[in-house]
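A quick aside before the break. I want you to see a complete sequence-to-structure record at least once, exactly as it would be stored in a machine-readable document. Don't worry about memorizing anything.
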Amino acid sequence: MMRLYVNVDHVATLRQARRADEPDPVEAAALCERGGADGITVHLREDRRHIQDDDVRRLAAAVTTVLNFELATAGDIVALACTLRPHQATVVPERREEITTEGGLDLSGGDARIAQTVDALRAAGIRVSLFIDPDRATIDRAAALGIAAIELHTGRYANTYRESGAALERLQGAARHAKTAGLAVHAGHGLTRDNVTPVAAIPEIEELNIGHHIVSRAVMVGMERAVREMRERIDRGE
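That is the input. The structure line, written in tokens, reads:
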């Protein structure tokens, strides 16, 4: 059964709009688990624009499924991950000016910081994933780093699925290639109730990370229902 990990970052975005203490992403995570989430994803950005260090500490203690800690290569955040030892750490790119993560990691230049981050996380006993574009050469470079999994960036698919099937075909080919390379395959970014089912139907993908749409839907119908609805759509694709 495909796993659904729910990203609770934007619960914190709403809280930080007022610098208040609600809504609480830890409470939201518990509701996600009650709604059928298989795991909780959280991204501690370098600029701390939404999730804060204390949120991650509390989530690490409170989550009853598994925690997927998204992070860039910033030393203090990597150190926090190594201390908390979540089930999984997903290394992502960050640019301060972006609103959200706009693409996957660039592995073409042999960035030593990425390799050092992977080594540190693995030494702490953490399962490591890299967030990358659905590109075969990038997948091969990721596999060479000795990681367990990759997460395919689905942003192009989410932006073009109504006009063309090309991005879906690219995801399908990338997923097959990654699986052949011995990697577990995850996917996420921009997935909604309207576009998730074809991605969930890709047999090589075993985990989806979805946040903004679920949190947006939860504002209208509640967190548990929003997660259940997404769970149903994913199940239709399997």
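Two observations worth writing down. The first strand starts at residue 3 and ends at 7. The two ends are 8 Å apart (CA to CA). We'll return to this after the break.
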